[in-house]
Structure of Metallophosphoesterase:
Amino acid sequence: MPGIRTASLIGRMDRSSRGDGPLSAPKLPAMRVHVVSDVHGRADALAAAGEGADAFVCLGDLILFIDYHDHGRGIMGDLFGAEAVGRMIELRNAQRFDEAREWSRTLWASLGGDRTQIVEAAIRRQYEALFAAFPTPTYLTFGNVDLPHLYPEYLRDGVTLLDGQTTTIGGLRFGFVGGGLQTPMRTPYEIDDDAFAAKVAAVGEVDVLCCHIPPHIPELVYDIEARRFERGSVAILEAIHATRPRYVLFGHVHQPLTASLEIDGTRCVNVGHFHARGTPFVLEW
Ligand SMILES: [Mn+2]
């Protein structure tokens, strides 16, 4: 399948039970997990992304609020049209955040009605389609562009939310840390550094650490298209040095300068912008 990137943990695991002799059959991976992040409304591609996977992992950002490539799509595009959204993106990219907020205020004022209610109704429609499309089993955490208080309405059997928590998938311990850190963008789910670090600490030692945001490494947090540094986490970076997970998987930075690198034997991977790619990152062991 084009666009699929696969990482294998085979060779780092004890495979003795499957036979290592020269005459034994070629080793087949026993477990295959598909990982996505930054879904941003791509309910249409979720089911296919789960095909052939034993488990599906989603690292958050389900909502499509603003479509940076197709300004007429997403909640803002639906409400205000492509031109108005384009203006806001322009201001944000120029880091003129106060003006961007002011522009957004003007747009909302022109609409009338209760802004919170209008947005929430639009988000509910997106969540309904997205949660219905998740394969089973799915393990997910929050992105910074998510509304945690709505999740209880949409979670169902086989779709498990984890945030500051761990679970075992195919014998490996997976930890999940959701949300983003505070920025001038004021996206919906940003938490302070201490609260974020507490979640990383609560997860502790794991084989695979799944987060929405990257560890704080310049080349992982720099977005070459937006031409700015997103926020990465120092707490995740410290956890890598202290606990050495095999993998740290994350998203958040849609067009990263570097998508994958190794720190102290830990492979750090941006699993990709699912909204644009429509294909998952594959982890096999
Ligand atoms: Mn995102």
Notes: The chain is about 35% helix and 20% strand. The chain has one domain: 7-63+136-284. Confidence is low (pLDDT under 50) at residues 10-21. Residues 7-63+136-284 form a domain with the Purple Acid Phosphatase; chain A, domain 2 fold (CATH 3.60.21.10).
